[in-house]
Amino acid sequence: MHYSTASGLLNSKFRERTTLMNQNKARNRSKIFILVVFLFLISACATPKKTVSIDRVSVEYDLIYSLPDENISYNDSIKPILEKRCVVCHGCYDAPCQLKLSSPAGIRRGANKKKVYNGERITADEPTRLFIDAMTTSQWRRKKFTSVLNEDDDAAGNDPVRNLENSVLYLMLRHKELHPQPRTGLLNKNIDLSLGRKQSCPTLNEFDEFAAKNPESGMPFAMPNLKRAEYNAMVRWIAQGAPMPADEEASIKASGQIKQWESFLNGPGNKEKLTARYIYEHLFQAHLHFEQTDNREFYRLVRSSTPPGAVVDVIPTRRPYGDPNGPVYYRIVRHQASIVAKDHMVYELSKKRLARFRQLFIEPSYEVSGLPSYDPVSSSNPIKTFAELPLKSRYQFLLDEARFFVEGFIKGPVCRGQVALNVIEDQFWILFFDPDAPIASSDPEFIHAMIENYASPSELGDNFRLLSVPTHYRTLFRNYVQAIDERIENFEPVKLESAMKYIWN
C-alpha cells in the first residue's frame, strides 16, 4: 500500500476513536453530575446538617450528632470544669467583661463591656451585683448584659447546631482549640496580662472580626487549653442548650435554724429592730454557715421587702444603710455561687451565737426611744446611728469575731488587692483594748460628745466635691485627735503589770 494511503487510513481511524472517547467522557460527566445532585438532594432531606456553619461548628460533627438522650449534668460534669479552669478569673467582681461563671445565674446573665474597676472614673456608676441588682435574665438584658448562650429564638435548646453557632461561650472555647497555646516555653509577648489591659468583650455579631484580629484570645485566656474530655463535655453541654439546675433550696438542717434567726431579726420592738439593723450592717458581706450543715453550704443575710414565710424580694440599695423606701425585713437566703477565696468570709450561726446576741443586745436594761433614719448624713455614721445600743455590747460584738471584721477591711469583696492596698497598709500589728479598760473609747459620754467628728465622706453619697471634702473631714479628724490628746494628758500613769491588763487577750 502506498505510504500516503496508509497514513490517511490511520488518521481517519484515530479521529473516529477520539470522537468516540470524547462522547463517552461527556456521557460520564453527565452521569457524575446527576449523581452528585441526587446525593446532595438526598443528604439535604435526610439530615439537619445543612444548617451547619462550616466556618464555626462543622468540626464538631461527632460531638453534636452523638449527644446522649439525657441532659449532661451541670453539677456533676460542668461545674467541676468551670471551678477548675474558669472561676479563678470569672468568679469575682473584677471578672473580665463582668462574666461570672461561678453560678447558673451568672452564666445566664452573660457579659457587659463596662469595667467594674475603672481607675479613671471619679463618680459612682450603676452597680451590677449578681443576686442583688437584678434577678432575672430579662432584667439583666435591660442593663445591657449580652448573652453568651443561644437566646436567638424559640428553638434554643432543641437545635444543637444553633446552640453552638449562637454561643459566644462556645466560640471562645473553640477559638482556643483552633489556636492552641504552646505547652512549653514563655507566653507570647503579644499577650497582654496587665490589670489595666483593654477588654474586648465581643458580642455574637462582633466575634468573627474579633477572632481574626486576636488569634491568641481564646479561653482559657493565657492558660493551657482545656483537656480533650473537658472540652468535649463543655461543647456537648452547650449543644444541648446548656441545661442548668434551679437554685438550691435551704437544706433541712438549715431550714429550722433560718426560721429561728429570722424570727429574732424581725422582732416587734424598737430594741429588736435596732439590734437587727446593727447585725445586718455588719454581716451583709458574710457567708453564713449554720451548725451541723455541710461544710460547703453557705447563706447570706439580706434586706427584703417581704416578711418571713414569703418569697424573698431583695432591696437593692447601693450601700447596706441605703434608704429602703419602705418596710424592711431581714431574711436569710442560700448562697448560690461557687466559693472563691477572694470574697469568702465565714460567720458561724448557732444556738450559742443566738444566745450571745440576746445577752449583748436584748437582755440589758435600756430603752430605744426611736429608730434612726436612713438619711445619708446620719446612716453613714454608725456611731450616731446605733448610739442607743450599749457601747460595751457593740464593742464586744466586734471582739467576738475580730478576725472576721479585720478581714472585712483587708479583704472584703474587693477582689483586686491593689484596690485595697490603696487605702490600707498591708503589714501591721493589731491590738485591742479590753472592754472593761477605763479608756476614752469605752466611755459613753466621750463617744457621744465625739459623734459629729466620726462623720465620713460616705455621707455625701455619690457627689464629687474636689475642694471641700479634704478640708472638712481633715478638720473633724483634728478635732477628734485633739480631744484624745487632752484625755491622755489627764490620764494617770500605771505600772506595766497593770497596763498589760488593758489589752484584750
Explain what the structure shows.
It is a single chain. Helix 3 (74-85) packs across helix 9 (228-239). It contains 20 helices and four strands. Strands 1-4 form a two-stranded parallel ribbon. Strands 2-3 form a two-stranded antiparallel sheet. The model is unreliable at 1-21 and 35-54 (pLDDT under 50). With 505 residues, the chain is mainly alpha-helical. Helix content is 42%, strand content 4%. It has helices at 3-46, 61-64, 74-85, 104-109, 137-142, 160-165, 168-178, 207-213, 228-239, 252-265, 270-283, 351-362, 376-379, 382-385, 391-400, 402-410, 417-421, 444-449, 468-489, 496-499; strands at 287-290, 299-304, 329-334, 346-349. The protein starts with a helix and ends in a 6-residue tail after the last helix.
Short recap of the structure:
The protein is mainly α and 505 residues long. 42% of the residues lie in helices and 4% in strands. It is built from 20 helices and 4 strands.
List the helices and strands and how they pair.
Blueprint: H1 3-46, H2 61-64, H3 74-85, H4 104-109, H5 137-142, H6 160-165, H7 168-178, H8 207-213, H9 228-239, H10 252-265, H11 270-283, E1 287-290, E2 299-304, E3 329-334, E4 346-349, H12 351-362, H13 376-379, H14 382-385, H15 391-400, H16 402-410, H17 417-421, H18 444-449, H19 468-489, H20 496-499
Parallel strand pairs: 1-4
Antiparallel strand pairs: 2-3
Helix pairs in contact: 3-9
